Amino acid sequence: MKSDIRRLAEHLLDESLNHTEVGRLFNKHRDTVRRMRRRANAHDLTFEGLSNQTDAQLRNILFSSRLRRTRCIQPDWDATVQHLLHTGDNMLDYYEDYYLKQPVSGDGKRYMSYSHFAKQLSKLLKRRAPEYRHDYRPGEVMQIDFAGFQPSYTSAGGTQIKCTLLLLHFPFSQYCAGCIIPSQKRSDSIYGLIRIFQTLDGTAKRVILDNFKAAIDVARGPRREAKINPEFRAFLDHYHISPDPTRGGEARDKGAVEGIVKLAQRYLQRILRDQQPRSIGDLNELLQTALDRLNEKVMRRWKTSRAARFQAREMQCLRKLPEIAYDYGVWKVGIKVQRHYRVHVDGRDYSVPFSLIGEAVSIKLTAATVEMYHDSSLVAVHARRIGPPDDDTPVIDPSHMPKNHRAMWRQNPDNLVDRGTRYSPNLGRFIALHLDKNGNPRATYNMLKRLLETASVHGKATIDAACVEAIQRNQIDPDTLRQILARGPLKRKRYQPLPPSTPSENIRGASYYAEGENDAV
Fold it and tell me: Is there a contact between 417 and 432 (Cβ–Cβ < 8 Å)?
């Protein structure tokens, strides 16, 4: 998962974004963004060279070491304007009754003077009348939202099961795509977006999303930016999408998708009047029919349909999808590596490189793997092992150990049996019996080491047969195995069929059964 400083560096090096756009995405002033880009150019920082820089090096390059000067406490200017327009209070009343009663934090900020407050508020009131309209570029922005209408299908048992309608909208072409998912859970939402991306065969650079719980942990407020869930952030990073959460209670931040949601659910409701879907797959087929009708309808503003405008001007501007689709996983961020260079995940220890002792790693749990990341780089991958609660066997990669620890680990009884079994199943049985009889893993390790050194001389088949003979003779010791290999294991006697016996005089011949006139007695 990428860190915030690495995402900031990638946007700073993106020449298609100006200072204001980058500052809005990361809550920075455009002058701050300009200074950061100057520092990046001074250090010859390029997009290809980002992989060679650690997060600490990027912070030293982009951020100045000097202390920031203290600033005044900023009020919620939008709420202030709304209050003055609706109540009729003057600036001085609001300044004394509301602004001066805000708590002062201990970070050195202070109240602004009334003259400065009045000057700033006057500028806002003058600009309050005009309404801004966003001008989107092709393939730049997409907006997602959930519909209030919940389509349902009838299960095999006759139960009505409600689902969730997820819609994706491109403001430039007004094109709409969607998917019906079981719920608004994070896994279902990510699955629905992946399916939409695969249908479109591309994504936009930025996504404007609502403050739904699957993606946002802390909603965007007047004085804070939204805190995006790490699992949803990792999904967006996989497709190189920059999130832009809206403000709470401000539907105008994504007004375009709000309008398209009403149209899409209206078209879907018309089709569902005469249909009785039996599965969520049937619902998605009906949704696709409804969206096709909506996108093929000619718009009065551009005298063309949404689908035609999307295919002609926006489809070729979408970002290509990665070769590998996103594999959903649960993230655990900021896990500190202890002195035993292991991390505890779901009741089991997994190893990480010993050089990361004392560092914080991020862990991604998928259905099949456990992945560890440090400084946005993948450092370890293990096959996820799920077993009963009493099975807490650690998953260890020998390459993660120091050299002396690796030598000790090779003498572990379980590792010795596993190593012998990988070479030959009968050798694994012999090793297990030798451990039970001898009880000294070091002696078993030395025996196995000397035996595998001669494997190229004897061959796997000969060693396997020698182990079988030693086990049958119940002589589990290296001397017996060495003697058998010296003379060669006994070959099994091949089965030889017995020769046919000659018929005796007591056996009746064919003439006895012949039928004739003289046969009757």
Answer: yes
Q: For 254, which DSSP code?
A: G
Query: In the β-sheet with 206-209, what is the strand arrangement from edge to edge?
Result: 175-181, 164-170, 141-146, 206-209, 242-245
CA distances from residue 80 to 17, 126, 368 in whole angstroms, order as listed:
31, 14, 53
| Predicted pLDDT at 295 | 94
d(CA 491, CA 280): 64
Distance CA 11, CA 17 (A): 7
Q: How confident is the model at residue 520 (pLDDT cuts 50, 70, 90)?
A: very low
- Helix, strand or coil for residue 345? strand
Contact indicator for 480, 473 with CB cutoff of 8 Å? yes
Region for residue 439 given its phi and psi (left: phi exceeds 0; alpha: psi -120 to 50; beta: otherwise): left
Triad 237, 241, 244: Cα angle to 5° = 115
- Give me the long-range contacts of 22-26 (CB less than 8 A, separation at least 24): 24/244, 25/206, 25/242, 25/244
- Residue whose structure tokens are 């006139």: 517
- CA 242 and chain centroid, separation: 16
pLDDT digits (tens, 9 = 90+) for 460-472: 888 888 888 888 8
DSSP 22-39: HHHHHT--HHHHHHHHHH
Measured in residues, the chain has a length of: 521
CA distance 198 to 206: 17
pLDDT digits (tens, 9 = 90+) for 80-100: 888 887 776 788 888 888 888
Residue showing tokens 């017995």: 498
For residues 326 and 364, is the Cβ–Cβ distance under 8 A? Answer: no
The answer to whether the CB of 409 falls within 8 A of the CB of 401 is: yes
Q: How far apart are CA 351 and CA 343, in angstroms?
A: 6
Q: 145, 258 in Cβ contact below 8 A? A: yes
Is the separation of the CB atoms in 170 and 310 below 8 Å? yes
- Residues 6+ positions from 511 with CB-CB distance below 8 Å: none
- Of residues 317, 407, 333, the one with CA closest to residue 372: 333
